[in-house]
User: Fold this.
Amino acid sequence: MGVLCLVLALHGCSDPGPVKRSWGEMRGLEDIVGNMNDTSYSSVRSKSPRLNALGEPVAMADFDGDFIWAEYAAPWCKACSWQTPETQKAEQDTADDVVFLTIMTAKSEAYNDHATVDTAGSWAGRFGLDAERVLAAELWFKAVPEHRLYSPQGHTLFVHVGALSAEQIKQAISYYRPGWEEWSRSGTRAEWMTSR
Assistant:
């Protein structure tokens, strides 16, 4: 994990926002993050619902028209145990404006050991999270913790691998959301938006 963070820091793009977005060529996100022509997240969000901690199917399309802050976590990840309470603090101040989801990626560090409804339920219970908003995913290979901010139209506005404080999460939302809203209203691109 430490090596991955170092590689991302060396290859990631900096931007003028208060919290550096992290992504790089190795992650394949350089053409997606901040690209207002890319709604690949939106185009597939209704096709693959995931089960939440209650065993109910949840599709990203259920939140159409909302900003979404997605936190990816796993029970074996020590940083995630610190991260989830920080995300909860940020949610308390921004929940009226942003939907917060926790996406459990795996049960363990073992190969192909995907998260289950039980994984999501255990995590929701451990931190007192809304069980409807904790999802189980088949993403055992994903680096965690990871954060993503999606626009109401499905643009990927922000990606960060690694822990963020509650204040950093709020700063990121406060920075990227108004830029997207202005672009949506007037077509004026924020400085952090790509020209693709």
